[in-house]
């Protein structure tokens, strides 16, 4: 449980990464451009079920898989699975499968990967190279995102832009709910059985792939939402799992981000800020600074509108990663000093990112069938009076689920269950998505062979893999090979709140570039108008008469 005063109680600690923050501003701009380009890119076609195929059929062919710029031998193909195993007459669909080959001649049990989400692909992860030394690495596509059916909801993505200047207003939330219902009806009319796109079905796909690949037992590596799948896998098929490593752990019920927990995390950041002289000089009480900024947020900076709901949503996302959190805090401190340009920028970024950042139908269906409570008033619960930030993500997503057709998964799968599987759980201490306190209070007591690692001042998955990659690789390889997680390479450094390229500076640079563009366009237009005027003057004047010719030979235009 976090307290207002952060202490080095974490078992293992990260070293500050030197290159990350310097490149972060450019990465944000690149991400914006990437979203724009992705919107213009052709959608990937769904995997087709071969004629005469049966459930469990797996077709593979040799391929290459690139990790850190190097190609590794792999096998790629598709797995045929039922759309809804509860329906004997269910149609078949296909999901992609990739197996990256181990470097060893006689590899140990393979590692099956489970990506975060819901709404993200389970393909494309680049594992630490140390894992390939003795293990195949297997990725089975997530139904609903990868394969035959991709539950895109463009109408919901557009609704996430909000209306009336406030993403979290009653009108905006009503539009989100209506668009969610419209998306579900569209998929059902297309013949898709939404009851088949659940976490137990994903695990059943994994089991079919395991059997088809001929592996009696496997290891699991999971992160974020994928850790929920790993917990269910260990409960449903404990004899199939050797060891399970879970990073940024999400216990049952925790797809809903609770406002009280978010506020505790922000208070933890405030304690870290109070220990840093520069941060403390700008915000003696960072949590109160954020509260006051949000309460007095202007609705415009220059010509850029500031949407308070989008600021809250982007704040929640930004505060989930160590270096991004520092940049977000800097934007709030600048706003408290009279410069809201950084918050205007992150409000603007939301519209570029939200429509396509996730496969929204997959998120709504899987999160809804697992954690939605129809008796709960999410509109009230996710924005309680006095909360610093509320819970903008859960307010948007879970309030919309009242319009989505939900078939809940069995009750026992929505609760923590005891497990004897050897399990390593890894969390960061400044992770708003998957707070470490949930693992300690709710999950660890149920793991008879559980080991916990909390990386101090690290955030979500990207931090756990990116801050100290060598230390994380040692942690995982030692756990899979011996059952004992070696964290000896981790070192500790307090958070550094200094910012070289922050959101306010980026906003001003973009505004300056915009003014230069406008000035350039204006100058170009003025030049074109002058050329046009000159041309008209030239064509409208009498032309000179050549010597010996009559004027009629050169008629003027009238």
Per-chain topology:
Elements: H1 18-40, E1 58-67, E2 70-82, E3 92-100, E4 111-114, H2 129-132, E5 137-140, H3 154-159, H4 170-189, H5 199-213, E6 218-224, H6 225-236, E7 241-249, H7 259-274, H8 277-282, H9 286-295, E8 300-301, E9 304-305, H10 308-318, H11 322-336, H12 341-353, H13 360-371, H14 378-381, H15 392-400, E10 422-428, H16 436-443, E11 450-455, H17 461-466, H18 469-482, H19 503-540
Helix pairs in contact: 4-15, 5-6, 9-11, 10-12, 12-19
Write up this protein:
This protein is an alpha/beta fold and 558 residues long. The protein folds into two domains: 236 residues, 3-Layer(aba) Sandwich (Rossmann fold), CATH 3.40.50; 196 residues, no CATH class. The chain is 43% helix and 13% strand. A nine-stranded mixed sheet has the order 1-2-3-5-4-6-7-10-11, sandwiched between helices. Helix 4 packs across helix 15, helix 9 crosses helix 11 and helix 10 crosses helix 12. The protein is globular, with a radius of gyration of 28 Å.
């Amino acid at each position: 449980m976090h307290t207002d005063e952060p202490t080095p109680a974490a078992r293992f600690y990260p070293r500050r990464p030197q290159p990350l923050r310097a490149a972060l501003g450019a990465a944000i701009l690149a991400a914006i451009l990437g979203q724009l380009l992705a919107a213009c890119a052709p959608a990937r076609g769904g995997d087709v079920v071969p004629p005469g195929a049966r459930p469990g059929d797996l077709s593979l062919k040799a391929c290459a898989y690139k990790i850190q710029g190097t190609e590794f031998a792999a096998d790629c193909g598709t797995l045929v699975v039922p759309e809804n195993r509860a329906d004997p007459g269910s149609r078949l669909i296909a999901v992609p499968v990739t197996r990256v080959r181990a470097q060893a001649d006689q590899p140990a049990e393979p590692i099956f990967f489970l990506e975060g989400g819901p709404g993200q692909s389970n393909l494309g992860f680049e594992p630490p190279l140390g894992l390939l030394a003795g293990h195949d690495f297997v990725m089975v596509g997530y139904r609903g995102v990868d394969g035959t059916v991709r539950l895109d909801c463009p109408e919901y993505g557009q609704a996430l832009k909000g209306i009336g200047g406030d993403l979290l207003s009653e009108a905006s939330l009503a539009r989100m709910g209506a668009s969610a219902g419209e998306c579900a009806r569209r998929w059902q009319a297309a013949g898709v059985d939404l009851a088949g796109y659940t976490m137990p079905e994903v695990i059943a796909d994994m089991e079919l792939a395991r059997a088809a690949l001929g592996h009696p037992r496997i290891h699991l590596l999971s992160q974020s939402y994928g850790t929920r799948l790993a917990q269910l896998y260990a409960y449903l098929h404990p004899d199939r799992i050797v060891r399970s490593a879970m990073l940024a752990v999400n216990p049952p019920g925790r797809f809903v981000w609770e406002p009280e927990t978010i506020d505790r995390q922000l208070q933890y950041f405030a304690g870290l800020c109070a220990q840093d002289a520069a941060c403390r000089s700008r915000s003696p009480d960072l949590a109160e600074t954020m509260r006051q900024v949000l309460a007095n947020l202007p609705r415009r900076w220059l010509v850029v509108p500031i949407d308070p709901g989008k600021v809250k949503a982007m704040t929640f996302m930004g505060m989930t990663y160590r270096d991004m959190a520092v940049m977000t805090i800097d934007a709030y401190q600048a706003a408290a000093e009279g410069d809201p340009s950084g918050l205007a920028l992150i409000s603007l970024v939301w519209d570029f990112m939200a429509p396509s950042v996730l496969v929204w139908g997959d998120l709504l269906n899987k999160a809804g069938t697992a954690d939605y409570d129809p008796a709960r008033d999410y509109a009230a619960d996710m924005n309680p009076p006095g909360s610093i930030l509320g819970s903008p993500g859960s307010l948007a997503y879970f309030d919309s689920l009242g319009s989505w057709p939900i078939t809940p998964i069995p009750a026992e799968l929505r609760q923590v269950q005891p497990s004897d599987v050897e399990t390593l759980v890894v969390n960061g201490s400044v992770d708003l998505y998957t707070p470490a306190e949930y693992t300690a209070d709710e999950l660890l007591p149920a793991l008879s062979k559980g080991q916990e690692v909390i990386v101090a001042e690290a955030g979500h998955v990207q931090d756990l893999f990116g801050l100290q990659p060598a230390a994380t690789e040692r942690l995982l390889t030692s756990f899979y090979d011996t059952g004992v997680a070696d964290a000896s390479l981790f070192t500790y450094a307090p958070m550094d709140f200094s910012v070289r390229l922050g959101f306010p500076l980026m906003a001003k640079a973009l505004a300056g570039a915009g003014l230069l563009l406008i000035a350039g366009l204006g100058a170009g237009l003025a030049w074109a108008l002058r050329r046009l005027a000159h041309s008209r003057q030239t064509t409208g004047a009498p032309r000179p008469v050549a010597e010996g010719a009559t004027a009629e030979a050169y008629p003027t235009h009238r």
